[in-house]
């Protein structure tokens, strides 16, 4: 397998690339990530770098490139097998139950829109106002939006109260779906998913987990968490190419009209207009030729991460995160954004504001003068981020806080040097 990209974690950040091919080539470690030496990527929460194992899986399959589920040739059969094996790898990685559907989508946004499309008639959806837009906007307009909670415990209590109220006097058979994030994309704070799932089920509701930010950092086990649906994005999970997944209970999905109509989703099409019998299972919502390479790349990452010592990876990331947060806290005029107490668990994401500086200007300076990539803006969680900026400014007594925030996020391949370079650049701003 050859590729011209360099696994950046095998290199000091500013070193010359090592030869990639030939006898001097370093052994690829499955969880190395690709990158460009000299460029410090601290924007994993938007899109994580591609894992070597994903690039290798794609490179290996490319010569076999052919149709999926549509051809009798050997190339095609191998591609079909690879696609279905990727589905199994994703299912194993996410702890799917035997009868869950594993549906490839384009990303988390697509997966949650698919679930919204599959809701039974008269369903009620309950979310928190702190969700990413992808978990706010797809739901029917009558969705219940609970206020941003002040602690994980308050979230559980608020959901309990809301579901009790919702159930009062209504048909107990009426479908209710709770949709929550596993880790927030603005603050990285973790949500009490298992406790929320218990509450949801106690009230006869189902629960969907937006694991876009949690799955790259911590194991997500559908069965152990007790959630009914999980959505993830491949591009945040070290796999490129626009692949996401919706995993979960098959009944609503099999009863819903296909997400897209067309070949692959239809089991039988007769001569009359609309004389069609739709497939059940994942195929029902995967019409059209699928994104084979994206699925295979994601499957390869899932297999590699599933086999890795995730507790050790988590410890490394937490040590780096603690260094980043402590460094930011020590910088004058910098304040972190948070919903919960500062000690509550988080994944490797920190958003912050700099007093008297527009975030876009700071981000541009970090990029041009220091080769550091961070995110600035409202992070597709506008109501939440505006509120957290105002709260951060109030804690520090700032009168004119910036309109937007900065976000640094880390993961596989992030190093102490990356973090320190950011802190040094911010100190000299
Ligand atoms: C928590 C969360 N949910 C959903 C999404 C949407 O992901 P995608 O853009 O891959 O659809 C994001 C993206 O940042 C996110 O952070």
From TrEMBL:
Keywords linked to the UniProt accession: Aminotransferase, Pyridoxal phosphate, Transferase
Molecular function terms from GO: transaminase activity
Domain Aminotransferase class V per the UniProt entry, residue ranges: 40-422
Cofactor(s) recorded in Swiss-Prot or TrEMBL: pyridoxal 5'-phosphate
Catalytic reaction equation(s): (sulfur carrier)-H + L-cysteine = (sulfur carrier)-SH + L-alanine
Signal peptide: none
Sequence similarity: Belongs to the class-V pyridoxal-phosphate-dependent aminotransferase family. Csd subfamily.
Protein name, entry field: Aminotransferase class V-fold PLP-dependent enzyme
